[in-house]
Write a structure and sequence with these properties.
Its cofactor is thiamine diphosphate. The protein is of the alpha/beta class. A seven-stranded mixed beta sheet has the order 3-2-4-5-7-6-12, with helices on both faces. The longest helix has 15 residues. It is globular.
């Protein structure tokens, strides 16, 4: 079995669904002839034709509107926004229509669409190309928000997202698009949505993260292990709805929690997790919850970009602060 990158896993999942479900279509700017800005859809139009892999005008509003209309009529559109910062013109259709379709019709209609977008920083791109805006979408009832952190999870979670009867925002951490490879069977097996993945067992502190910062979080766990500190690592994966039970169970065991994400700290998803821990695990915690995040600014250009993103040392220091409390 060949090893593939995260971006290749996305292509593989799209190809599987196009081949096995005639209601699936892929659409977006340059997804056909050029294969997408990051080549996520390379070769798909040649294989499945221009009516299944559709090049659209440079108009995100129209892409979203077309997707909602097709989904309401029984198709399964997978739309691409070239960057997460280009997704804002889609919001009216996604928030006012896609997310409300089931509620508005009392369950008579659903809206099985997926919006894919390269997400997050770390590739030395301008600020509109480097945002981590998952909290905005997590606040909208009716939208599911998914962020994979590995090739295998990208493949399995994208399959599940396309098969889901309701709208899914699928953010792909582009910093790790081609960072490493792993074996991913092309067997059409979806991974479950709405669950966290425990990547490493531990007993001293719980590290919670998602997306590209899973890499730094695992490296921080390695650094802590070298000092005799056992860290449990949880990949949230589905931001909304949140599998809080898995996080709660871990924190009940360790008594300490560090939440890591690259989005700004203020009103981020980490704040929601911390709030739920305060509500449901106050007497299990032996130290305040720590958050290691991006800063409350737009992501800086180029020279300061990696300083903005959570680093291994910041995670290690936060974990040690929780361990200093007894």
């Amino acid at each position: 079995m060949a090893e593939i990158t995260l971006i290749e896993a996305v292509t593989q999942a799209l190809a599987w669904e196009l081949a096995h479900d005639e209601s699936v279509v892929v659409l977006g700017e340059d997804v056909g002839v050029n294969g997408g800005v990051f080549r996520a859809t390379v070769g798909l139009q040649e294989k499945f034709g221009p009516w299944r892999v559709i090049d659209t005008p440079l108009c995100e509003t129209s892409i979203a509107g077309l997707s909602v209309g097709m989904a309401a009529q029984g198709m399964k559109p997978v739309a691409e926004a070239q960057f997460e910062g280009f997704i804002y013109p889609m919001l009216e259709h996604l928030m006012c229509h896609a997310a409300r379709m089931r509620y508005r019709t009392r369950g008579r209609l659903s809206c099985p669409l997926v919006v894919r977008a390269p997400w997050g920083g770390g590739i030395r791109a301008p600020e509109h190309h480097s945002e981590a805006n998952e909290a905005l979408f997590a606040n909208v009832p009716g939208l599911r928000v998914v962020i994979p952190s590995s090739p295998a999870r990208a493949y399995g979670l994208l399959l599940a997202a396309i098969r889901d009867p309701d709208p899914v925002i699928f953010f792909e951490p582009k910093r790790i698009y081609r960072q490493y490879k792993e074996e991913v069977p092309d067997d059409g097996e979806a991974l479950p949505l709405d669950v966290c993945y425990v990547l490493r067992d531990g007993k001293d502190v719980t590290l919670v993260s998602w997306g590209a910062t899973i890499k730094e979080t695992l490296e921080a766990a390695d650094a802590l292990a070298a000092e005799g500190i056992s860290a449990e690592v949880i990949d949230v994966a589905t931001i909304k709805p949140l599998d809080f039970d898995t996080i709660h169970e871990s924190v009940t065991k360790t008594g300490r929690c560090v939440i890591v994400h690259e989005a700004p700290k203020n009103v981020g998803v980490g704040a929601e997790i911390a709030a739920r821990l305060a509500e449901h695990a106050m007497y299990d915690l032996v130290a305040p919850v720590e958050r290691v995040t991006g800063y409350d600014t737009h992501i800086p250009l180029f020279r300061l970009e990696m300083k903005y993103l959570p680093a291994v040392q910041r995670i290690v220091e936060a974990a040690k602060r929780t361990l200093a409390v007894s």
